[in-house]
Amino acid sequence: MNRPATPLQALQSRRSFLQAGFLTLGGLSLTDLLRLRAASAAPHRATPDTSVILIWLQGGPSHMETYDLKPNAPLEYRGEFNPIHTNVPGMDICEHLPLHAKVADRFTLIRSISHGFANHAGGAGRFLSGRDPLRPLDPLSQFPTIGPIVSRMREHVNNGLPNYIGNQPRVYGGGSAYLGESALPFVVGADPNLDNFQVPNITMDDKLKDRLDDRMTLLASFDQMRRDIDQNGSLKSIDKFNSKALNMLTSDKARNAFDMSQESAATREKYGRHKWGQRALLARRLVEAGCSFVTMQMQNPGVQGCAGNWDIHAVNGHLYDDLRGRLPIFDRAVSALVEDIYDRGLDEKVMVIVSGEFGRTPRINPQKGTRSKIMQPGRDHWPGAMSVLVSGGGMKMGQVIGSTTANGAYAKDNKLDPNDLLATIYRFLGIDQHHAFLDHSGRPMPILPKGSPIPELS
Fold first, then answer.
1. Superkingdom of the source (predicted)?
2. Which pLDDT band holds residue 160 (cuts at 50, 70, 90)?
3. Stated pTM of the model
């Protein structure tokens, strides 16, 4: 015979039912609930008002044709381009980056980062996650890369904007892995250079706002019941995340941040009226408005004869013809971003990183082009040496960190790991690199298994 429930059992059953009802209405999985419980239970340290812009050059730009030319190397290494002086003595860069040269005192070049993965997916995963990929050819990283980590570590920040924004869901070889899809960026895929550029899903019409107000009033009527059942803070945490989404929909902050028409014609022209330039400008607008991490991928420059990304093997294109079309666009976009960050007083708040997943082979490898059908120069994948540009972040600028061998093949002085750069970025964002997440098997995985902030940037 079934015994009647005791008052305590009845109360527990009612609480379980109510909690399940709230979860059903909110569309939350058990994983979401556990994450929200952890978020509500774990006290957050004060988060600095800092942001990072990652300009990602998928395919791997040639360090030998951009930031680390070797004019004294044999012809089959040094290539066709010549170095020019910058406004920083001793920092020479490619002749096709003259606007960079004028603002070199506002950035630092790191020439001695290297790793061991020479394919695109594995190289990007290694560079951006700080861990050796388990499946180097997998386009999805098996470990969370920096953007999703920032997204998760700063999910408590509520400033009316997503805290991670990108122009694609993930970089090739990147991803959120065991942090889940919700750690991926808010995607702005449209070309911000277009006159009709707009971002969907950041505003709602007045009728929807009225209906939302009605629902919020209804939810408010459950306050006492919520206080009765919410002993562990889960619902409070749910409120926080719902509030974050509602703030974005009902405030003007996100809409204004994405409104490129608020920029003057002169400013837009300074960045370049092309996709890359306006992506760089949009990135500045987003971090200025409070976004924590913005990834803008500079692919498909829209110049006839240029390959889609920076992977200029000879079979993909003529290395020098491609770069003669690509570099002036890149030069204008990046130099304008660097200059704008400083001119607007954002250099203490914003760090800019410009990099791809690796460099290119020191020796030029001519092959017959797939389209041209003629022999032409190119360089292949090379993780033994690469160059990274860093600007802002309240750090020491106008310097070159590290060097490569005489033919540009390997890091020589001050050899650095991608993890050292990641550790520098995490420190700037106030993120503990030793913080651990649980992977799919339940093992605690620290954000970085190794790496220390680069002291020359301090």
1. Bacteria
2. confident
3. 0.85
What are the structure tokens assigned to 123, written together?
């190289």
Closest CA to 63 of 76, 79, 84: 79
d(CA 138, CA 348) in angstroms, rounded, equals 37
Helix axes 120-129, 418-429, angle to 10 degrees: 40
What DSSP line would sit under 388-433, residue for residue?
EEEEETT---S-EE--B-TTS-SB-SS-B-HHHHHHHHHHHHT--T
Alpha-carbon gap, residue 206 to 37, rounded angstroms = 34
How many angstroms separate the CA atoms of 50 and 294, rounded? 12
In angstroms, how far is CA 116 from the centroid of its own chain? Answer: 22
Among the listed residues 447, 444, 455, 340, the one whose alpha carbon sits nearest the alpha carbon of residue 401: 455
Q: Which of 96-100, 116-120, 216-220 has the lowest mean pLDDT?
A: 216-220
Cα–Cα dist 47/186, whole Å: 21
Cβ neighbors of 448 (< 8 A, separation 6 or more) are 130, 419, 422, 423, 426, 433, 434
- Mean confidence (pLDDT) of the chain: 87
Q: In b/e form, how buried is each residue of 433-443, taking b as 16+ CB within 10 angstroms?
A: bebebeeeeee
**Domain extent listing, the chain:** 46-198+273-446
Question: What one-letter code names the amino acid at 179?
Answer: L
Q: Residue 159's pLDDT is what?
A: 83
The CATH class given to the 46-198+273-446 domain equals alpha beta
